[in-house]
């Protein structure tokens, strides 16, 4: 199963308890909305947050933004109610926190079918526990199991720092092996992956550097906590004009009759193989999808 290409450059979290944020989300130029019932919501207002999210998603008005509800874990007092409410609200996806193993996703997928969730409702998985880092390959492989409906990983770097005691320092040297393991696990499972949040949302320079690092790692986009992070995030995760032009050029060159039988050619002094043309096709498809979104 190959998933359709969908821009997921930016995914903005907002607490379900914050009605103003849920309203503002309808006007923000963001690819995905992560409507949160979990970490960003205090226990005293879990019920309020759930009701507000259901009302907001049911009312709609989110246009082509992908709407995702993050529920509390099933082991908490709120998880089952969240899951039932989320199914009723019918977002694009449900984000499952603190996934440790494939069984955690299989259990929720089973409940989706028991509760009669629509077929196009997918699951996203928070990758944020030490167990998940050790089981990343098996969790990612759920992307190949249509019954589980897994389409995206979301790195939970704050929880990962808490649980492992590794530091989230500039450059993220301690996190890098886990981030890259999860990138490999996502690709092996044929799904997308979004980078963790950058907490210091006033630090523009630090944020830009971390976005650039995420791009280099192969992340499809980044999770965000504040609207001011959206624009610089899109700048980093959208293919540049140069990348698009290069992608078109190498594909056009391979398409010329004299190159029909060739596996490797020279373009502007560089060796280019058919795999580069394939990579270019993806760049063009993403750029087209972004342009289609904007119009
Ligand atoms: N989503 C939507 N709108 C948001 C937002 C968010 N995540 N964060 C801020 N805004 C809005 C505010 O409502 C405000 O709108 P207004 O001026 O039109 O009323 C505007 O952006 C400016 O907000 P600002 O005053 O700079 O921030 P704040 O002090 O109100 O909030 C945070 C700061 C960190 C509490 C807030 O950004 C937030 O809750 N972020 C998300 C946290 C979260 O979900 N974490 C879980 C995953 S890590
Ligand atoms: Mg978390």
Blueprint (SSEs and pairs):
Layout: E1 10-15, H1 19-24, E2 32-36, H2 46-59, E3 66-70, H3 79-89, E4 93-96, H4 102-114, E5 122-127, H5 130-134, H6 136-140, E6 150-155, H7 157-164, H8 176-189, E7 192-195, H9 204-217, E8 221-224, H10 230-237, H11 241-255, E9 264-267, E10 270-273, H12 274-294
Parallel strand pairs: 1-2, 1-8, 2-3, 3-4, 4-5, 5-6, 6-7, 7-8
Antiparallel strand pairs: 9-10
Folded structure, characterized:
- By secondary structure, the protein is of the alpha/beta class.
- It has 2 domains: 10-237, Phosphoenolpyruvate-binding domains (TIM Barrel), CATH 3.20.20.60; 241-294, no CATH class.
- The strands form 2 sheets. It has an 8-stranded parallel beta barrel with strand order 1-2-3-4-5-6-7-8, surrounded by 6 helices. A two-stranded antiparallel sheet has the order 9-10.
- It has helices at residues 19-24, 46-59, 79-89, 102-114, 130-134, 136-140, 157-164, 176-189, 204-217, 230-237, 241-255, 274-294, and strands spanning 10-15, 32-36, 66-70, 93-96, 122-127, 150-155, 192-195, 221-224, 264-267, 270-273.
- The protein starts with 9 loop residues before the first strand and ends with a helix.
- The chain contains 12 helices and 10 strands.
- The structure holds coenzyme A and magnesium ion.
- Magnesium ion binds next to loops.
- Residues 9-227 form the HpcH/HpaI aldolase/citrate lyase domain.
- Its cofactor is Mg(2+).
- One of its GO terms (biological process) is oxaloacetate metabolic process.
- This is CoA ester lyase.
